[in-house]
Fold:
Amino acid sequence: MSNRITSLFDIKYPIISGGMVWCSSWRLASAVSNAGGLGLIGAGSMHPETLREHIQKCKAATDKPFGVNIPLMYPEVEKIINIIIEEGVKVVFTSAGNPKLWTKKLQENGIKVAHVVSSSKFALKCQEAGVDAVVAEGFEAGGHNGREETTTMALIPSVRKVLDLPLIAAGGIATGGGMLAAMALGAEGVQIGTRFALTEESSAADQFKKLCIDLQEGDTMLSLKKVSPTRLIKNDFYKEVQDAEDRGATSEELRELLGRGRSKKGIFEGDLKDGELEIGQIAAYIDDLPKAAQVVDDIIKEYNDKLNEIINNKPLF
Structure:
């Protein structure tokens, strides 16, 4: 399997593990890279020197390409950028901010840059900013989402229609069938979060993982829309947020309710009652916690099997 995404990142398969807060440690990133995909370390939940440690451990654990995801709203983003350059990381995925701010500096230091968007409008801004690839993420995804609430199936063809750059699909993809659907709509690779968050190598708490594989359809909702739209599992914290929003709480009041360390409390420490529990809709489909390499192998096998089924079937019309 070779296309513009595999060539751009020098990987075997066009599968990227999302850089998720409290899930995407060096263990997960190196495991995905060793399996032929592109593993990302999630810088959004790390202090700068913690990120340096994870980068160094990832380099020791794999000789394959890996990258770092940086939310550009991160308060110490300049320190993060400098560490990435100093450590010789070759791939950066940016999100939650203006891609024009850091793309040129990263590329001047030999780093390939992809930026995550939620609309065709922002995809075009990425192209103007000179990024190497775009990730178009539908609102099925876990964690922070775009305000447009456009689904992946609607978003990918719309972005493909206006974009010349290599395109990666994200949001609600966890299987080879999902990958095939995204590719049929114009994507050249997939970024997968939830499926990799629910693996052995994910750094999320066991309590969180076990809760997620028992989720049913409708157990997650997009919330915190006045602050930053975030897909959450329905727990006591979610209900607090919804009650506050229903009574017309301001964005300042919601930020105070959110406080600091709420996602760490939920995802990393396993407080299933009062923690902020971020996961994608596709969690309702997942019922196991395999190794990351098994996930990659299963996706590729199912992709090829389903593609062969389509090719070998008679035309429908």
Remarks:
- The chain has a mean pLDDT of 95.
- Residues 206-282 form one domain.
- The first helix runs from residue 4 to 9.
